[in-house]
């Protein structure tokens, strides 16, 4: 059976950069691309960072019972939804995957596959959480620099995400999800090396 290495962390924790580096280090590992209804940012490509779609597609997956998890956020620019669909990307019988998501989506994915006859007794072994931590002050500075680089900065939304992370990734929620190990992203290279050791320790070639 394959494994799903689930990368997560608060906004501006560096998880997007780490994700890209890990994909290069493990070229045999498959990706699971999430869907979102939010507008595409500068430099993002459809089918790479996300599948950029609409509420109609979300409802279609929901009606067909193919929705693994979904999250909707009331932003300064309307409701933005993010979701993972059982759209044929995932084949745990033959492949390993690297996923980037939230703590909420990680728990939902555990529940979705845990309900299937395919892996109910081994779900913890097949979903490997990789939680990245960064000092809040450093994260805020990174978020501000990234937003300034956008053609139309959305500072209010940046602040909303930052504050929401405090609740979403609370210690209580981390414990409930079974997250024990943390990867400190003080030095990006050292953090990536630590995660690489973790993945290879799970018998990944």
Features:
205 residues; alpha/beta; five-stranded parallel sheet; four-stranded mixed sheet; 8 helices; 9 strands; 40% helix; 21% strand
Give the topology, please:
Blueprint: E1 4-9, H1 15-25, E2 30-31, E3 35-36, E4 51-52, H2 55-63, E5 67-75, E6 78-85, E7 97-101, H3 103-114, H4 123-126, E8 127-133, H5 136-148, H6 155-168, H7 171-176, E9 182-184, H8 188-200
Parallel strand pairs: 1-7, 1-8, 2-7, 3-4, 8-9
Antiparallel strand pairs: 3-6, 5-6
Helix pairs in contact: 1-8
Give a short summary of the structure.
This protein is an alpha/beta fold and 205 residues long.
Question: How would you describe the overall organization of this protein?
Answer:
With 205 residues, the chain is of the alpha/beta class. Helices cover 40% and strands 21% of the residues. It contains 8 helices and 9 strands. The chain has helices at residues 15-25, 55-63, 103-114, 123-126, 136-148, 155-168, 171-176, 188-200; strands at 4-9, 30-31, 35-36, 51-52, 67-75, 78-85, 97-101, 127-133, 182-184. The strands form 2 sheets. A 5-stranded parallel sheet has the order 2-7-1-8-9, sandwiched between helices. The protein has a 4-stranded mixed sheet with strand order 4-3-6-5. Strand 5 and strand 6 form a beta hairpin. Helix 1 packs across helix 8.
């Amino acid at each position: 059976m394959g494994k799903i290495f689930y990368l997560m962390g608060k906004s501006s924790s560096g998880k997007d950069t780490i994700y890209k580096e890990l994909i290069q280090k493990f070229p045999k590992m498959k990706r699971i691309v999430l869907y979102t209804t939010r507008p595409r940012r500068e430099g993002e490509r459809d089918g790479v960072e996300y599948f950029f779609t609409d509420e109609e597609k979300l409802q279609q997956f929901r009606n067909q019972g193919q929705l693994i998890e979904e999250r909707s956020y009331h932003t300064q620019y309307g409701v933005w939804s993010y979701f993972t669909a059982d759209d044929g990307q995932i084949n745990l019988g033959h492949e390993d995957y690297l996923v980037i998501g939230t703590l909420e989506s990680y728990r939902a994915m555990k529940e979705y596959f845990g309900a299937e006859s395919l892996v109910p007794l081994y779900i913890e072994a097949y979903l490997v959480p990789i939680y990245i931590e960064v000092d809040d002050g450093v994260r805020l500075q990174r978020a501000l620099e990234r937003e300034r680089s956008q053609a139309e900065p959305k500072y209010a939304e940046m602040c909303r995400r930052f504050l929401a992370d405090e609740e979403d990734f609370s210690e209580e929620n981390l414990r409930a999800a079974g997250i024990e190990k943390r990867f400190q992203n003080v030095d990006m290279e050292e953090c990536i090396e630590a995660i690489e050791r973790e993945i290879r320790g799970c018998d990944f070639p």
